[in-house]
Design a protein that fits this description.
The chain contains 21 helices and 14 strands. With about 450 residues, the protein is an alpha/beta fold. The strands form 3 sheets. A 6-stranded mixed sheet has the order 4-5-13-10-11-12, sandwiched between helices. Strands 9-6-7-8-14 form a 5-stranded parallel sheet, sandwiched between helices. The protein has a 3-stranded antiparallel sheet with strand order 2-1-3. The longest helix is centred in the C-terminal third of the chain and has 17 residues.
């Protein structure tokens, strides 16, 4: 399998090079040159398959034969050792819970898969691999957990100072060993820019063997396509009449990795009528959908902080998957944005009606799904992605739900750990010096 750069100015590369580079030499992001379509027989039998069996079939579409069958099966088994339930809310509305992994966020799927794939692809090297990751919340903790203790790999997690929840910060800063937490004086966009600057410096990247663990890395996106197939399989084994309705996914969007994974799944044959790109007030994508012009903007802090992104990296991938044609965008994707007040109200109303508690990110997706279904006027199966456990945002949740006090065991354990992190300015030279120090 070969992977091309979205900037089309560097040659196609192998899986190993795409994963190890993260960012192409020309600054573009990698996508498979060809996405094969899964056969009808796969979809006829998908309801009888386990999650691991489904994931193995789908992974082959995007990886080809570059990883032996037994190795890939082992990577998937270790990556998906937790449940991904589909829950029903009223008429044809479902929630896919992606937060049952070790850090209680959807990014556990991608981070665990990526860490194990990287370890396999890098198994014969004699110098350290240095992984950079920018986080607005959940990515950093998932990557830290996925890579902690992996021999031969150092991980540098860049997070914006004062802009992640205290609990999220502890999930980033309490690992030690090969995990280095760096508090950046800036926003998530600044952290992301620093990461891209390091990766884009080819001399520096080669010297320190740099790669990325953000969703700019194709190894993160491939497993994020799996759970769209899982949801389809669950519907297929449920009420058959509903399973035949057109399928709509509402995705809470920040850096747009999840939506890109869904579009890759659709390209591989998953029958999806529409994706709803649900955003908070960081609505760069929504304005693009209205005007056809993409204009990045400074990010604005919200209660759905993992979505506070003003220049989503994966926009360039989506543009390629849509043939760089705004009409294709509008045929497949609908975009909405919501305020913090909208989000809080949705959480409170659904809790009052059902006792179910959404986190602020899933609530944005819920709002998007409800709005689409009210405007579409035809029956569909609607699934919104719930991407993080609400207990990860205790301060926010307590303001919305007075008696909210639940903290799962995975998160309780984190609170007792001691933090260890380094503060740096929004300065590539400071980051470069720190990486050099670790690798001396």
């Amino acid at each position: 399998m070969l992977y091309y750069s979205t900037n089309l100015k560097s040659p196609a590369v192998s899986l190993r090079e795409a994963v190890m580079r993260g960012l192409a030499e020309d600054g573009g992001l990698y996508l498979p040159e060809l996405i094969p379509v899964l056969p009808p027989s796969f979809f006829k039998s998908i309801g009888d398959m386990t999650h691991n069996e489904v994931a193995l079939k789908v992974a082959r579409v995007f990886i080809g034969d570059d990883v032996p069958e037994d190795v890939l099966a082992g990577i998937i088994k270790e990556s998906l050792d937790f449940m991904i339930p589909l829950k029903r809310f009223g008429e044809n509305v479902y929630c896919l819970e992606l937060f049952h992994g070790p850090t209680m966020a959807f990014k556990d799927v991608g981070a665990r898969f990526m860490s194990r794939l990287m370890a396999y692809l890098y198994r014969n090297e004699d110098r350290a691999l240095n992984v950079l990751v920018a986080t607005s919340g959940d990515t950093g903790s998932a990557v830290a957990a996925g890579f902690h203790g992996v021999e031969g790999i150092n991980v540098f997690v860049l997070f914006p100072g004062g802009k992640v929840s205290p609990l999220q910060q502890k999930q980033i800063t309490t690992w030690g060993r090969n995990i280095y937490a760096l508090e950046v004086d800036g926003t998530f966009d600044d952290c992301q820019k620093l990461t891209k600057q390091m990766l884009g410096d080819r001399q520096l990247s080669d010297l320190f063997n740099l790669t990325s663990a953000n969703s700019i890395n194709i190894a993160r996106l491939i497993p994020q396509s799996f759970y769209y197939f899982f949801a389809f399989a669950r519907l297929d084994t449920g009420r058959i009449d509903e399973a035949r309705l057109p399928l709509v996914f509402s995705v809470p969007c920040g850096n747009f990795g999840n939506l890109t994974g869904g579009l890759m799944a659709r390209a591989a044959g998953l029958p999806v009528l529409r994706f709803v790109a649900s955003t908070n007030i960081n609505d760069v994508f929504c304005r693009f959908m209205e005007t056809g012009e993409y204009k990045p903007a400074a990010s604005i802090p919200t209660i759905s902080n993992a979505m506070d992104v003003g220049d989503p990296s994966n926009f360039v991938r989506i543009k390629d998957l849509m043939g760089n044609n705004i009409d294709n965008f509008r045929e497949i994707i609908t975009a909405y944005s919501y305020s913090d007040d909208d989000t809080s109200m949705a959480i409170g109303k659904l809790h009052a009606a059902t006792d179910y508690i959404m986190d602020p990110h899933g609530a944005v997706a819920y709002l998007g799904l409800r709005q689409f279904m009210s405007e579409y006027h035809e029956a569909v199966n609607g699934i919104f992605l719930e991407t993080a456990h609400p207990a990860k945002f205790p301060e926010t949740m307590k303001r919305i739900i007075d008696d909210f006090d639940y903290l799962p065991p995975q998160l309780q354990e984190v609170l007792s750990r001691e933090e260890k992190f380094h503060s740096i300015g929004n300065d590539p030279e400071e980051l470069k010096a720190f990486i050099q120090g670790v690798n001396q």
